[in-house]
Write a structure and sequence with these properties.
There is one protein chain. The protein has about 220 residues and is of the alpha+beta class. Helix content is about 35%, strand content about 25%. The strands form 5 sheets. Strands 1-2-11 form a 3-stranded mixed beta sheet, with helices on one face. Strands 3-4 form a two-stranded antiparallel ribbon. α1 runs antiparallel to α2, α3 packs across α4 and α4 runs antiparallel to α5. The longest helix has 21 residues.
Length: about 220
């Protein structure tokens, strides 16, 4: 996940998740890497913050290659495919699903939530089950000033959102039609980039339906 053109740090990948699908045991694992992780720059012997690797790849005209290779080196897992979404694409995705249901674990009040074009606003959300539209879900995913775990707490909320998106998408059979999904991704334009071939979307949907997505193993790499 990256910010996008309308936000500061537009190419910083502050959200990096590794999704692993076990096709034999039908299990799913989701691993989140913190943006400030000191990560290797493949082929250089140097390291830098994980969230800056995508911009380095753009500067060297290799796109996501450096980021992917670094995540593979850190985790010891091959990265077969990637998908990247920016803030605007994220909002539109949530709205296309009709919003998502999320259990907010504590009251949130942030008077300096960062908005577009270097602006600030107040973000407030009450504890309990809430239905979030795209704009609110983005704020819930990004908020860190009023979280005692800071970036680590934010990462846990991002995994929570991923599972809420899964639950909502599963409840709309037409959304998981390969043609509908491909058309939706195309409509997002540059907000979403991926190297998953359009002709393979149907196979991915079939695979997803066979997995035990109600029991996802989620892990956040944190300071503890």
């Amino acid at each position: 996940g990256r910010a996008g053109e309308k936000y500061p740090g537009r190419n910083l990948t502050d959200t990096v998740m590794l999704l692993s699908l076990d096709t034999e045991k039908k299990r799913v694992g989701l691993l989140s890497l913190p943006r400030d992780l000191f990560a290797p720059i493949p082929g250089t012997g140097l390291s830098t913050k994980l969230n800056s690797l995508y911009q380095i790849g753009l500067n060297e005209d290799v796109g996501t290659e450096i980021l992917r290779d670094s995540v593979a080196e850190i985790t010891g897992q091959p990265i077969h495919y990637y998908a990247m979404i920016d803030f605007d694409g994220f909002e539109r995705m949530i709205d296309a699903l009709g919003g998502i249901q999320v259990e907010v674990m504590r009251d949130i009040y942030d008077p300096r939530y960062p908005g577009k074009n270097y602006s600030y606003e107040t973000f407030e959300l009450k504890k309990g089950w809430q239905k979030l539209d795209g704009k609110t879900a983005l704020k819930y995913a990004r908020e860190r000033h009023d979280d005692p775990e800071s970036d680590f707490g934010r990462t846990k909320r991002q995994q929570q959102i991923m599972q809420a998106v899964r639950d909502r998408a599963w409840s709309i059979p037409t959304f998981l039609n390969p043609f509908a999904l491909s058309g939706f991704l195309e409509s997002l334009g540059e907000s979403v980039t991926t190297d998953i071939p359009p002709e393979r979307l149907g196979r991915f949907i079939e695979l997803a339906r066979s997995l035990d997505t109600k029991n996802v193993s989620t892990i956040v790499i944190d300071a503890w």
